[in-house]
Specification:
This protein has 407 residues and is mostly helical. 80% of the residues lie in helices and 0% in strands. The chain has helices spanning 10-43, 47-75, 78-92, 104-136, 138-166, 172-182, 184-200, 221-236, 240-254, 259-264, 270-295, 298-307, 310-315, 320-348, 354-382, 384-397, 399-405. Helix 2 (47-75) crosses helix 4 (104-136). The chain is globular.
Length: 407
């Protein structure tokens, strides 16, 4: 009996290698995300300031992607743009270890620099990924990459948990600074593996055949409706910095009075909450990525319905089970966002203009993420129930637009 050749295609090998690069990259910046909100609060930043800076970083990180997307399409220099962005992205994180005990302004500046690195790399990175993904199924391919991303996003917070566990001397500030310094290791591995991947696949655009005639990019009705839907989603999706700030203020204060809480939520275990969210993110990305290949944008409707109520459980209850459920639902929203949103752009935008399409999509996403993060951060200081209501309503309002874009 003859066995079929099951060797990986070159396109899938590229997807996996690039996914491993993303794994170590996510170890670096998602590890930082697991404690950044608590760290900024420790440095003296208010909830409004954290929401503003987190949103500003996302706005810069997303809005500038339109500029770099256009530049990438014009120059076709996919690898130089990707590498330059990665360098800024992974170096800005360990630099957070160098800010002083009251240096929240410097920490905010490094956050903006890190987001600028993402702005430079993302259109080029997503575009060369889409070339390979077009040969293997876009939903599945971006889902696989997101799974590898989130393995890194799980390992990063776990690494920081271990650092905090063994960092028994010094202040909380010194412990957090040590965490950011340790993240220089996966950051360096990211850059090494990225150069290895470039050496093996210097021309990834060859994976997808070019159209016989040039197809100019046009803002079609379905794309406009889709952009409007994801913008509402971004507006209502609360940044994790605000979530972890709320947890650090609420649950760690309760720890002294509640044995149950003290055993599950304290300063040392905060990274594990984010690690758990990233595991859910990974599973959701693959599941909804595969569902996208079968059902299209409608898969995003299901993920939004499931994840939209996360703020109710995180902010409206002082219960550890409710908190864990809320963070899990937040992870589902993130996973679907990372896989389906990118896959949909691949199908809606022609190859020669795809970096521009990604840039437009991510520019709008980032502007509304900024506006939402700022407003929701301010509302947190004024009225938590109002913040929760705005968050859930904005995400659910995106569903009709998703459905119309799929027609």
């Amino acid at each position: 009996m003859k066995h079929k050749n099951r060797r990986l295609s070159q396109a899938m090998l590229f997807i996996l290698l690039f996914g491993i690069v993303s794994l170590f990259s996510d170890m670096t910046h998602e590890g930082a995300s697991s404690i950044r909100g608590a760290y900024f609060s420790l440095l003296g930043a208010s909830a409004g300031a954290i929401g503003f800076v987190s949103g500003l970083g996302e706005m810069i990180g997303y809005s500038m992607r339109y500029v770099f997307g256009r530049l990438t399409d014009k120059t076709k220099r996919y690898w130089p743009m990707t590498i330059a962005g990665y360098v800024l992205d992974v170096l800005a994180v360990p630099a957070l270890a160098l800010v002083g005990e009251h240096g929240w302004v410097w920490a905010c500046l490094l956050l903006v620099i890190q987001r600028m690195g993402k702005a430079i790399k993302k259109p080029a990175k997503d575009t060369i990924m889409s070339f390979a993904a077009s040969q293997e199924g876009v939903g599945k391919s971006f889902g696989i990459q997101e799974v590898l991303d989130q393995i890194g996003a799980f390992l990063g917070p776990v690494l920081l948990y271990l650092v905090l566990l063994f960092q028994t001397q010094g202040s909380t500030f010194q412990s957090y600074a040590a965490c950011f310094a340790v993240l220089a290791v996966p950051g360096a591995i990211t850059l090494i593996l990225l150069l290895v991947t470039r050496r093996k696949f210097p021309n990834p655009e060859q994976f997808e055949p070019s159209p016989k005639t040039y197809i100019p990019f046009r803002m079609k009705r379905e794309f406009i409706l889709y952009i409007a839907g994801i913008s509402l989603f971004a507006f209502g999706f609360i940044d994790y910095s605000i979530i972890i700030m709320h947890v650090s203020r609420t649950y760690t204060r309760l720890a002294s009075g509640l044995a149950e809480t003290s055993s599950l939520v304290n300063t040392g275990t905060l990274p594990l909450l984010y690690a758990g969210a990233m595991l859910v993110d990974a599973a959701a990305a693959l599941l909804f990525g595969l569902l996208y290949d079968k059902k299209g944008v409608k898969a995003l409707v299901w993920s939004t319905v499931i994840s939209a109520p996360f703020a109710i459980f995180v902010f409206s209850f002082r219960s550890v089970p409710a908190l864990l459920l809320g963070i899990a639902l937040w992870g589902i929203g993130m996973g679907a966002q990372e896989s389906i949103l990118k896959a949909a752009v691949t199908n809606m935008v022609p190859k020669d203009s795809r970096a521009t399409g990604y840039g437009i999509f991510e520019c709008s996403f980032g502007i509304f993420w900024f506006l939402g993060s700022w407003l929701l951060g301010v509302l947190y200081d004024i009225s938590v129930p109002a913040m929760v209501a705005v968050s859930v309503a904005a995400q659910l309002a995106a569903i009709p637009l998703y459905l119309r874009s799929a027609k």
